[in-house]
Amino acid sequence: MIETIDTRHGTANQHSFSNGNCLPYTGVPFGMNYFAAQTTDQKGSWWFHPNDHIFQGYRLTHQPSPWMGDFSHFLMTPFSGELSELSLFHAQSSYRPEEATFAPYQLIIQQLRYNITSTLVPSMYGAALEINYSEKQNNLLLTFPGLKNLEQINNHELRASLVNFSGCEDPDFTFYLTFHFSEPILAVTKKNQEEQTLVSLAFGTIQKQSIHLATSFISPEQAQLNLDREKELTLADFCQKSQEEWQSYFKRIEVEHTDPAQTKTFYHNLYRTFLFPQTFYELDVNSEKIHYDTVGRQIRAGSLYTNNGFWDTYKTVYPLFSLIAQEKFADMLEGFLNSYQETGFLPKWLSPDERGLMPGTLIDAVIADAAVKKIRPDLMPHFLEAMKKGATVQSDNTNYGRQGTLDYLKYGYVPSTYHESVNHTLDYAYSDFCISQVAQTLQETETAQHYAEQALNYRNIFDSKVGLMRAKDQEGNFRADFSPIRWGKDYAEGSAWQSSFAVYQDFAGLVQQMGGPSAFTEKLITLCNQAPKFDVAGYGFEIHEMSEMAAIEFGQLAISNQPSFHYPYLFSYVGRPEMAQPLIKNLLTECFHAGIDGYPGDEDNGSTSAWYIFNSLGFYPVTPGTGEYVIGMPLVKKAVVHLSNGKQLEISATPNQPQQQFIHQTLRNNQPYQKLFFSHEDLMAGGDIQYDLGIVPNPQSYQAADYPFSLTQN
Hints:
Layout: E1 34-38, E2 54-55, E3 57-61, E4 74-80, H1 88-91, E5 93-94, E6 101-102, E7 107-111, E8 116-122, E9 126-132, E10 138-145, E11 147-154, E12 157-162, E13 175-181, E14 187-192, E15 196-204, E16 208-216, H2 220-228, H3 235-250, E17 253-256, H4 260-273, E18 278-279, E19 281-283, E20 289-293, E21 298-301, E22 305-306, E23 308-309, H5 310-313, H6 317-324, H7 326-343, E24 349-350, H8 363-372, H9 380-392, H10 405-411, H11 421-441, H12 445-454, E25 462-463, E26 468-469, E27 486-488, H13 496-499, H14 507-513, H15 517-529, E28 535-538, H16 544-552, H17 581-591, H18 607-617, E29 619-620, E30 628-631, E31 638-642, E32 648-654, E33 662-668, E34 671-672, E35 677-679, H19 680-684, E36 687-694
Parallel strand pairs: 27-28, 32-36
Antiparallel strand pairs: 1-3, 2-5, 3-4, 4-10, 6-7, 7-8, 8-9, 9-16, 10-15, 11-12, 12-13, 13-16, 14-15, 17-31, 18-22, 19-20, 20-21, 23-24, 25-26, 29-30, 30-35, 31-32, 33-34, 33-36
């Protein structure tokens, strides 16, 4: 069994709490609810920090990132004695984070003020909370933002409903709660504040209170059904089930490193990868899947998922699922199709429903990747229809579909009158390629050809004079005031350096646009070896992605954010993988580690964690939608990947000490392997990959004719 992973710090990899993306969630994989310790209510969405020594309570949360905000959340705070004032401030307690347990499957906190030790273990739709008191007057404070209704059923049961969210199509989007207490509630005190309601429950002199909590987005009756299914389970039962669920995912990849600390880092990243997207459906009385449609404002049949930004996750998370969690990936696809059927457009950023953030419609890449890997082929005709609609129909609601759709079709690029127009153009061109790939799997040749041609639209904004992508106006003129290091304005979370190589569908063509292999190589060297300077003019202030790029000192290779994830692998597209190998190893060892800043930057919905997983294994899915994994530089000493089809892929990399910076040769099933990439079909066949490592490069270890050109060589 994988040892307990501390989701806070110390025993595994630490989250990058500097930008707040990585909260220490406790729950089940892809859970409907997560729980975390709240340490402050004074910093908005940044309500936890690992160095805080204040415990305000157990927060039930659905927050995918601080910038999205939370929804359907509340707080549970044990306390003893009388409070001078009924408030969270007066109830909070000190605690020692280094003595607390922050594990994927449970939280254990000792409140020093009250000498209370409590344990919380979540399930898919609820949790068990056991509180051990030591004083004579013992209580629980419930903090309900947006309380809609509170009802005490009897001395042991309480029901509540909440309406709180950062954004939702339904202004009355309600979250239902049901509590069952092992010991009776002796008194209930309620205090209304501006935006929240405080409810104090008195239990008297009891020494232990066991609470079963169940939740629902459907109805009070569904919440009660969810409770009834677990009411007889003990805390130990909850703990065993949660551990078993996590272990079923952790054991899908078994790894060994030369440095044992790297093994802990690996599994911490694996834990993060299985948090999102979150389940947004429940099981009715017949155990059939049902969910709440926030647009139609009614209950519907089938799967649904939430809390996912596809701009971030398409690159890494779903390709990893395609190898080791196909059964879950298949169900997610069904849920995304349900989103389309209920809203009219494929989702882009769900939390709880469409928020309309970030450029592009990059769920197209998730669909195309599934299509070429033969995952849910039954859904692909419907998905192709949805993708084509997104590529041709401009929604009246800017949250949905592509922005500037009609102008993109008219000019072959998105004009500079649109914010982040360069990234919109590049993402649309890549999505057109993805549409073409899905059409090919369905043998719709004419559609495939049409969108393959549109996929070359990236050429329309390439400026050969500077060798980078630039914004154009409607007359076809490049924006005059160009700076290659200016972030924002025409670019999303980056400058021209972080955006100009997003041509996943046609790297061969991009190489030629930039002047051929030698010129392209020089461009990459310039990108990597210059200082990590940035110009804030596009935003007007320094955003955290700028700070993080500067902090890690890897030139303009901002591995701290998703647009740069594939940059090291670009050397392989000009036959120079040896230039990437030490770079990848340094990124893995320098930017991911235990401590307060264990990620280099954004860890959105598991995207950076999955990047780490792939790169540790020695290959990376540069272009989702092709079924290709470009060979990189393994960090593991050994790994066994338990594939979704039941086969095993065994990986070894020896000797793998810090000084081994290069791949001397690659063997596949004991035979020399000279291609620069693996295919999905090949990996799913299982077998062995042996990386023999060295301290100097060996250009003879690969064949120049086997570059991974991602199927397009125009």
